[in-house]
Amino acid sequence: MGRRGTRHSTLTPHARRVAEVLSRSGFHPHPGPIDPKGGRGGVLRIKLSADANRTRVRVAGGGVQELYLYGQADLQQVERVLTAALGQQVLEALVDGRGA
User: Fold this and answer.
1) Can you give the pLDDT at residue 1?
2) Backbone torsions φ then ψ of 68, nearest 5 degrees
């Protein structure tokens, strides 16, 4: 049998901070899996990617955790909210995979 990972209801410290920023802006982030070995240290880094039905916010720094925004979330608005609250330097990548 496979090893049971960390429960998805827990948040890493950086993911908690990002989730609070998104919640204050009217988004409803859902926690995803945690990789405690991922990341290159304690510096906050964020990667945004959009699929057809969800937006994925990958939060790295002392571990990696994904937050999901389900439904139609404007990727540019999510980017503006996060960079305004956390600074432009935290955003590593922005990928819109929804097609044209």
Assistant:
1) 46
2) -115, 140
Range of the domain at 43: 13-96
Report mean pLDDT in 10-residue bins for the chain, 100 residues.
Answer: 57 92 95 75 89 91 90 91 95 82
For residue 43, what is the enclosing H or E element?
none
- In a domain, residue 5? The reply is no
Q: Are 12 and 65 in contact (CB under 8 A)?
A: yes
Q: Rounded to whole angstroms, how far apart are CA atoms 76 and 92?
A: 14
String of b and e for 72-99 (b: at least 16 CB within 10 Å)?
A: ebebeebeebbeeebeeebeeeeeeeee
Query: What angle, 0 to 180 degrees and rounded to 10, lies between the N-to-C axes of helices 13-24 and 75-86?
Result: 120
